[in-house]
Design goal:
The chain has 122 residues and is mainly beta. The chain contains no helices and eleven strands.
């Protein structure tokens, strides 16, 4: 059974940092990533990374502030979020693909975690 379990969300003031983790089990994946959804908005891509840790791919809104990394030995993906802004407030979802590289299209990801809340106050 495939499971993606996120941890590390929480509340922080603007300018602060958080680190999200996602532990995957049940199979290996070609790509893993993070997407987010704010109230009243559609789910949007944040960052993705291929199986070998290469080809990290970021949304323009988080470039230079967020860093995605992957530990294949632990089948875990991380999202280091620095210089957080109130507009980063959302539920963050870990996602995984069984084929191909990371993609900004949310519907192309095959598996999803349950989500973790990130709240950034001004």
């Amino acid at each position: 059974q495939v499971q993606l379990v996120e941890s590390g969300g929480g509340s922080v003031q603007a300018g602060g940092s958080l680190r999200l983790s996602c532990a995957a089990s049940g199979r290996t994946f070609s790509s893993m990533g993070w997407l987010r959804q704010a109230p009243g908005k559609t789910r949007e891509f944040v960052a993705g990374i291929s199986w070998n840790g290469g080809n990290p791919y970021y949304a323009d809104s988080v470039k230079g502030r967020f860093t995605i990394s992957r530990d294949n030995a632990e089948n875990t993906v991380y999202l280091q979020m620095n210089s957080l802004k109130p507009e980063d407030t959302a539920v963050y979802y870990c996602a995984a693909k069984i084929m191909g590289g990371p993609t900004p299209m949310w519907y192309e990801w095959n598996y999803w975690g349950q989500g973790t809340q990130v709240t950034v106050s001004s």
